[in-house]
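Pasting as-is:
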Amino acid sequence: MPITTGSKLGPYEIIAAAGAGGMGEVYRAKDTRLDRIVAIKVLPTHLNQDPALKERFEREARAVSALSHPGICVLHDVGSQDGVDFLVMEFLEGETLEKRIEKGPLAAADILRIGTEMANALEKAHRQGIVHRDLKPANIMLTKAGAKLMDFGLAKRGDPNTLASALTEMTVSQKKLTSEGAIVGTFQYMAPEQLEGAEADQRTDIFAFGEILYEMAAGQPPFKGKTKASLIASILSSEPPSIASLQPLTPPGLDRIVRICLEKDPDERFQTVHDLKLQLEWLAEGGSLAGVPAPVAHRRKHRETLAWALAAALLAVTAAAGFFLWRLTATPQPVMRATLLPPEKSNLVAIGIGGAPAVISPDGKMVVYGAMGPDGRTLLWLQRLDATTPQQLPGTEAGAYPFWSPDSRYLGFFTTNALKKIDITGGPPQTLCDANQGRGGTWSKDNVVVFGLREGPLMRVPAAGGPPVAVTQLNRSQNEGTHRWPLFLPDGKRFLYMAGPNGNDNNRNVIFVGSLDSKETRQVLGASTNVQYAEGYLLYRRENTLMAQPFDAKKADFTGDPMPLIEHIRFDGSVSRAIFSVSETGILVYQSGLANSGSRLTWFTRAGKSDGVVGDVGLFYNVALSPDGKRVATTLVEGTATATDVWMFDVARNIRTRFSFNPDREFIPVFSPDGKQVVYGDDAGTNGFLVKVRPADGSAPEQALTQTNPQNLAALDWSRDGKYLLCIGRGQGVNSGALDIWAIPMGGDRTPFVVLQDQFSKDSPQFSPDGRWFAYQSNESGRDEVYVAPFPGPGAKFQVSNNGGRLPKWSKDGKELYYISLDQKMMAVPIVLGSASVQPGAPQELFPVRVPPIRAVYVVGADRRFLINTIGEASDTVPISLFTNWASTLRK
């Protein structure tokens, strides 16, 4: 049937030809029933006999019909008449992004707006299991209502030989054509894995997305070639020039986002469009300032160095090494924002137990933060704001929760079992005192350090070192279990701190004021997190917003109403801390909570090869595997929640369902030996953690195994005979953060008993398959090492690791013990278990891992594969934001 103006396809009257889609002709038409203009996509008659193309045409109809989103072209109808198959779609008025790019590069604000709109639409498709496979500027229509994605018609992979025939075409047409078969999509925008004939997934779309962002910013595609062969070679092997080298005013943050999208290895890209969208939103909200042309930056640097030397009343700004650095002098200062990025190929380590969020020095000249390098080691890094690159602080491996001395010369920080300080001008760290699982410190002008622990009151110690002494007292009648995140007020005597219950019930945390001269305390604020004082304001988090409230430091009382300062402040619910810090000179550093891309449950072979995933990227914590390998239990933070819940994955169907429903934190799920039950910890108990049990299929409500739990027991393993739970629990004495090993009998009255108790902190106990031994980690040597001891004891213990180790796990046959070294390597030790002795072999390194610093982050399958809660190479790509003269914005 020939189609001309005036032709009718059912109730649709053709008005005019409108162009060609990915595999069909498009007409502007009128719906005579509803009196509206529509677009008709027609499969040409000469192609209608091709079963593959017809199937593809029908696939587009099915794909688009499953999607309902303002950023996706709407499908109104599907029809067939006189041998003509057609789709009736929303008629979009505007121009394609391809046409817009032909006019030149887009402004940064337009790039971020269009990119965010694209990401919102693509995220909807991905959540429906639909991968576009042919993202390109020609398939994006710019309308008054925003960007719209079009053309979801590409077929799945077919014959790999299609690539060879495609390469015989010796020139690349300016009209970018789509090739059918194994290589589906438009060559210019294909990911390397597409070109190699691999199955496309959402990361394939992310590669094309990066190319589109690049082309919008640079005005040209990232990869070029005179023939398809040379174009493909460019995509597979070359790196495009940085956008900034072509368009110097490009925000550095955008250049970095694009580089991550264009990684050759899909595992190195953003793993979901949601992660990418959050990065674009962060950038659009002011997360990165526009760049400065290189010649101008050079001239500015000369002037600013001079200004710094003369102490001129200016805020000096210079762009270097892909991020902005600040030099501060006398006030007044403009309100400005900038960002800091970690060293190349490193992750910021701001959240999780043992995190090291960024803290700015009191004089506003330096920022210290924790970062995990490619070798898996976490170190503290010092960024001077008048320098271009950060520097390592030697001896600060696994340093956590850093804090500054008032003169900005020393830095306090915690290790697993000690409080230390380091002179930033040089020299090794010095231990001040023992401190198991520190939770924040503050340093007075009289050289007194007050610090918190995971459990127990605040302690004080001289800045020169000495025995710690309690400076507060827990109010057990109010179920206080922890005092943490202290902050000295300007007088150096009084301090603010957070008091909370046992565990992490963030809804019941309260801010008090205390004093070195008195045991009396007074409630100041009901807040779920740490506080900071500067510029006459108290800063604290409330419902994901950083608030600033006028505060009289002498009276320790508020003098005005709270005002919002930063939306979506990042929050670490595992330790009840928001990620922000302020200097005395008017600089706020913080991280946004919008861009926490989290981690992924990834299978690895013994050789360290990635071998599949469970679920998508998320804020995962602990992980457990059912004995039959069909289910995975994990704890994660979902949506806007601040506490972890237990979720269950059906591995075969990749379906996730919520398993626990309490408002407070649940943690560390453990399967019973028969896989029919799951135990997990719950922070909601009024006398400490509760150990709860529930059928694994969710067929009955949870039950508490113990009604009281003064030791704060948390189960880590279940013996193969089903008789015992192996737990960690509160230690004794002043350092109540120390942990001992306990067991709960699953029969009788279930009264817990101590298995191993001493002055050191122990963790992560695991039963051997025969139940006669257990592996655990202990810091008795000064660092964590892995040991094996008899159960239930007593008896001699045997050290297994030889250079530090934690998180032991047994092979199913008990002939091998695994653990993670302190430099993040998966280790394996052959082991022979006798009746009264253990014979461990030499540890063997298997492969590097990237895991968060928490418990129960991996399991070993029956096939000796490892399911690991894996932090991606760029999983924490949220930069550190700097905000100068923030207080002035509150007075407007």
